Amino acid sequence: MFSFLRDSDVPLEKNPKLKTHAMSVFVMTCEAAAQLRKAGKVTVRETTLKRLGSSHFKYGVADSHFEVTRFALLETIKEALPADMWSLEMKNAWSEAYNQLVAAIKQEMKPAA
């Protein structure tokens, strides 16, 4: 899926471009979670959504790719927290934030204008 990984000899966990993408997903999900808590909905700037939707469309991102990313995000958060902090409620909250962010991106997944 990521063209920058195809010809790379760098292990995935050390690839700086993959780390940058992962951090971007995490930060946007954190922002979505904060917006859900404060306003009850996720709002992302229209220009950002159009850019994200267009690039995800261009690279052929499918529902299954979003699912894998959600799984990786949730597992990463779970591993980063003390075991007694992770709960079904927390998992569902993070999942909801991610799902709403993805839904907004999917609405804009069309060729660039």
UniProtKB/TrEMBL annotation:
UniProt cofactor(s): heme b
InterPro entries: Globin, Globin-like_sf, Globin/Proto, Leghaemoglobin-like, Leghaemoglobin_Fe_BS
Presence of the UniProt keyword Iron in the record: yes
Compartment annotation: Cytoplasm; Nucleus
Sequence ranges assigned to domain Globin in this UniProt record: 1-110
Reactions accelerated catalytically: Fe(III)-heme b-[protein] + nitric oxide + H2O = Fe(II)-heme b-[protein] + nitrite + 2 H(+)
GO-annotated cellular components: cytoplasm; nucleus
GO MF term list: heme binding; metal ion binding; oxidoreductase activity; oxygen binding
PROSITE patterns xrefs: GLOBIN, PLANT_GLOBIN
Keywords: Cytoplasm, Heme, Iron, Metal-binding, Nucleus, Oxidoreductase
Pfam annotation, one family: Globin
Gene3D superfamilies the record matches: Globins
Primary location recorded for the protein, binned into one broad class: cytoplasm
Family: Belongs to the plant globin family.
Subunit description: Homodimer.
Protein name per UniProt: Globin domain-containing protein
Organism: Digitaria exilis
